[in-house]
TrEMBL record:
GO CC, alphabetical: endoplasmic reticulum
Keywords: Coiled coil, Membrane, Transmembrane, Transmembrane helix
Coiled coil: 156-183
Any matching Pfam family: Motile_Sperm
Residue spans crossing the bilayer: 191-210
Protein name: MSP domain-containing protein
Organism domain of life: Eukaryota
Source species of the chain: Eruca vesicaria subsp. sativa
Similarity section: Belongs to the VAMP-associated protein (VAP) (TC 9.B.17) family.
Domain named MSP: residues: 9-129
SUPFAM superfamilies, alphabetized: PapD-like
Length: 218
C-alpha cells in the first residue's frame, strides 16, 4: 500500500478531501487523478460512508500519461458533526489493464486482491470547513500574506459561489418558463379576439349585402 495521494501508477491532487460544510446544502471536491505510466490504468473509488457521498466517476480507465477529474459530492446534511470532525475516509485503488480497455469491459474481479495481480491503493482523509472558519482564515491569510491559505480559501469561496450561481440560474429558468407560458396564453387570447372581430366583420358585410338585395326592386 502506498502513501497518501500518490503511488507507483497514479498521482492524486489534492491529497485530502476538504468540504465547505453548511447544513442542508451540498458541497463538492474535485480530485485530479493522473496516470504516471505508459500503461492503461483502471481505478476505483471506495469510501467508508457511501450513503453520504456521491462519486462520479467512481470507476474508470486512464490512458497513458493522461488524467481525469473525479467529483466527490457531500450530500446535504441535517446536523453538524461533533466538533466539525470527520472520520470518513476514501480509498482509491488502481491497477494496470490491457491497452484500449474500456471501463465497461473491466472484469468484476479487476479490483480484487490476489497473488497474480498488482493492486495499488491510496488513502484520502476528509475534513470539513465551516463557512465562518473559511471567512476567518481568508481574512487571516490576507493580513499575513499567507499565499497557500489564500489559495485554499479562494477555492472554497469559488465552490460556494458556483453553488449559489447554480441555484440562481435554476430560479431564473423557472421565471422565464412562467413568462413563456403567460406569453402563450396572451397570444392565444389575442388570436381569439382577432378571430371574433373577423367573424363580426364578415357578418356585417353579409348583412349589408342582404339588406341591399331585399331593398332592390323585384
Amino acid at each position: 500500500m502506498s502513501g497518501v495521494g500518490e503511488n507507483q501508477l497514479i498521482s492524486i491532487v489534492p491529497d485530502e478531501l476538504k468540504f465547505l460544510f453548511e447544513l442542508e446544502k451540498q458541497s463538492y471536491c474535485d480530485l485530479k487523478v493522473a496516470n504516471k505510466t505508459e500503461d492503461y490504468v483502471a481505478f476505483k473509488v471506495k469510501t467508508t460512508s457511501p450513503k453520504k457521498y456521491f462519486v462520479r466517476p467512481n470507476t474508470g480507465v486512464i490512458q497513458p500519461w493522461d488524467s481525469c477529474i473525479i467529483r466527490v459530492t457531500l450530500q446535504a446534511q441535517r446536523e453538524y458533526p461533533p466538533d466539525m470532525q470527520c472520520k470518513d475516509k476514501f480509498l482509491l485503488q488502481s491497477t494496470i489493464v490491457p491497452p484500449h480497455t474500456d471501463v465497461d469491459d473491466l472484469p468484476q474481479d479487476t479490483f480484487t486482491k490476489d497473488s497474480g495481480k498488482t493492486l495499488t491503493e491510496c488513502k484520502l482523509k476528509v475534513s470539513y470547513i465551516s463557512s465562518s472558519t473559511a471567512q476567518k482564515s481568508s481574512e487571516s491569510g490576507a493580513t499575513n500574506g499567507d499565499g497557500n491559505g489564500s489559495v485554499t480559501i479562494s477555492t472554497l469561496q469559488r465552490l460556494k459561489e458556483e453553488r449559489d450561481a447554480a441555484v440562481k440560474q435554476t430560479q431564473q429558468l423557472q421565471h422565464e418558463l412562467e413568462m413563456v407560458k403567460k406569453r402563450r396564453n396572451n397570444s392565444g387570447n389575442g388570436l381569439s379576439l382577432k378571430l371574433a372581430a373577423l367573424v363580426g366583420l364578415i357578418g356585417l358585410i353579409i348583412g349589408f349585402i342582404l339588406k341591399l338585395t331585399l331593398a332592390s326592386p323585384t
